[in-house]
Amino acid sequence: MSDTHHSADGSTRAALRGIRVLDLTQVMSGPFCTMVLADLGADVIKIENPEKGDQTRASWGYSVIGDDSRAFLSLNRNKRSVGLDLKDAAGLDAFFALVRTADVVIENFRPGVAARLGIDYASVRAVNPRIIYASISGFGQTGPYSQFPGYDLIAQAMTGVMSVMGEEGGAPMKSAIPIADLGAGMFCTIGILGAVIARGDEGEGQYLETSLFESALAMSVWESTEYWSTGEPPKPLGSANRMSAPYQALRTSDGYLTIGANNEKLWRLLCGALAADDLVADPRFEDNNRRLDNREELAVELERRLAGRTTDDWVDMLLAAGVPAGPIRDYRQVLAEDPHVSAREMVTSFDHPIEGLTKVLASPLKLSGTPVQVRTPPPLLGQHTDEVLDEVRALMHGPGVA
């Protein structure tokens, strides 16, 4: 799939072309949301404090040549940066001039901060009734936790996610992938797209919000089901699954593989591939419920048989037998060596004016008519201030504009 798609008149098409987003966010959840929108073609204007900018520029991740960290570079492509001091009258005036031209405003301040700055939904809507205003916070705009600091680690802890991570009896463990941050960004993106559709051509905008806490909790689908079904809080299961077995990582002669034999057909295929027909007849494993009850004994029986071959051998044999299986890889193997990652174009790059050619993950979205594009590198702080404000002045004072 190519990076660009041209319409009949030669112009590049984009799914969100013509949608302008004012991005007041920083760190991860908000910038991830606005990067998805920017990848889809929205004009995302990142409004930053002109002195410091998004705190991720300097205080998160790895810096290489310039001042901006690689963490910042990984989340802010396809955006333009405008430096505005929102505590200054001139900066506030410039912001509201931008609001008049915008479709979406998104912020991830702690609840109450936007109102104190005079840029909350009510203030913005008074200037542009068509605006879609989105807020991401740690715990939501209301409720007893609303003023708690919003961090992925804290959200994972307080939603129960950390209580089911790792092995039973082990130390507390979080998901290494920041699911609360990224989940909030994804849910916010979905909400914004839904609100854009609901608004249509002539309708009014609306306010939407989500939080790290609610996003992590909303993804606890199996864990909440187990609690409501049994009345007991779920426990850590390592790599195993709450609803089916075997569905986990298992040891081989030289490492581990993962097996997903999560229905009766696949269970019988697995036993056949392992020459373990005795397990099919074993009353401990006669159906999924019994296999769940005896999950640890099942793992012992399977690993005893898997010990005779390497991971690669077993993966080839199991896939040939129709059993879902795969090796456990590290990120070097995934990003530098995996032919499927290359075939699916999941690594891309941009030419940054300071860092040079910089690799980043590509979008997982594949749209045939309006493909996702990496158009521009992450902006330098305030790089587009004059450009964007000149555009706004032209729009406000052009022909036919009062």
Descriptive overview:
The protein has 402 residues and is α/β, with parallel strands linked by helices. The chain has helices at 29-39, 56-59, 70-73, 89-99, 113-117, 121-127, 152-158, 179-199, 212-218, 221-230, 264-273, 277-281, 288-293, 295-306, 311-320, 331-337, 339-343, 385-397, and strands at residues 20-24, 43-48, 79-83, 104-107, 132-137, 207-211, 247-251, 256-260, 325-327, 347-352, 356-361. The strands form three sheets. It has a six-stranded parallel beta sheet with strand order 3-2-1-4-5-6, with helices on both faces. The longest helix is centred in the middle third of the chain and has 21 residues, at 179-199. The two termini are 45 Å apart.
Spell out the key features of this protein.
alpha/beta; 3-stranded antiparallel sheet; 18 helices; 11 strands
Taking the sheet with the most strands, its summary is:
6 strands, parallel
Average pLDDT number: 94
Using the alpha-carbon principal axes, give the shape: elongated
What is the percent of helical residues?
A: 25-40%
- The end-to-end distance, rounded to whole angstroms, is 45 Å
List low-confidence stretches.
Answer: 1-11
The SSE order reads EHEHHEHEHHEHHEHHEEHHHHHEHHEEH
* Number of helices, where a helix is a run of at least 4 consecutive DSSP H or I residues: 18
